[in-house]
Amino acid sequence: MTTHAPQASHSVTLPASLDEAVAALAAMPAAVPVAGGTDLMAAVNAGLLRPAALVGLNRISEIRGWQYQDGHALLGAGLTLARMGRPDFAALIPGLAAAARAAGPPQIRNAGTLGGNIVTAAPTGDTLPVLAALEATVIIAGPGGARREVPVSHLLAGMEMLRPGEIVGFVRVPLLHAPQTFLKATGRTGPGRAAASVALVLDPARRGVRCAVGAVAMMPLRPLDAEQWVASLIDWDNDRGLAPEALTAFGDYVAAACIPDPAPPEDGTEAATLPPAALHLRRTVAALARRALGRALS
């Protein structure tokens, strides 16, 4: 269904399927897809965006739920944060549910969607570090019924881009049936934008630890060396024990990897030090990473 206002700039199309949405975007290349609109409307209200047309995605039922598929969960991009925060979803992917519950006040969680978080790719997006730690992939719908699958991290890093007429339709997440944690620090009490966040996932089958740090850079950061180091210390065969000093060292390792010291000057003069704000952020990340791993192992 399409309703046309007197000017093209007010055209709104409401497709009933993913392929109809792709066709609408192909017919109107300047159109912008919209689901919850929490980021889009903020940009419009701030005068940063004036979309020529909108393609509404809220009537596409196929992207508003989830299904099981070969040891994975196939999540619709239209899943709201509020829906992901419910107990049944938390039993499925606890880290993602925790991030969804922390994403902001109820009005934001009721409207905001998983796909919107990914496409907007705001550095403070709470679901993004969890998706990075889970090594999730996105299924992108394109013209002619085409589908392609790329890692979420590639999309966030700009290694892959949405092509004209494409829409993120689904997110594929491995079901690890293992501890997952998400923690974040904000600048105020209660829901708010993250100053830093940490997602941590244990993968007992591969004896691995996966960690992603959000909000400190333009995309979630994976401290791979820290992951491999701490995984080698965990007693995977018994109680997954880890010495307390190793927890502390892991937090420091993660923080230093994500907020490194300034490079030494080429002229041999004394190296610069991190400013106080960066040092505080590094301590925050260290504390979050330490607590996240401790909770996952407990």
Automatic annotation (TrEMBL):
The keyword Transmembrane does not apply. Keywords: FAD, Flavoprotein, Oxidoreductase. PANTHER family: XANTHINE DEHYDROGENASE SUBUNIT C-RELATED. It holds the Pfam family FAD_binding_5. The keyword Oxidoreductase applies. PROSITE patterns: FAD_PCMH. It comes from the Bacteria. This is FAD binding domain-containing protein. Residues 4-178 form the FAD-binding PCMH-type domain.
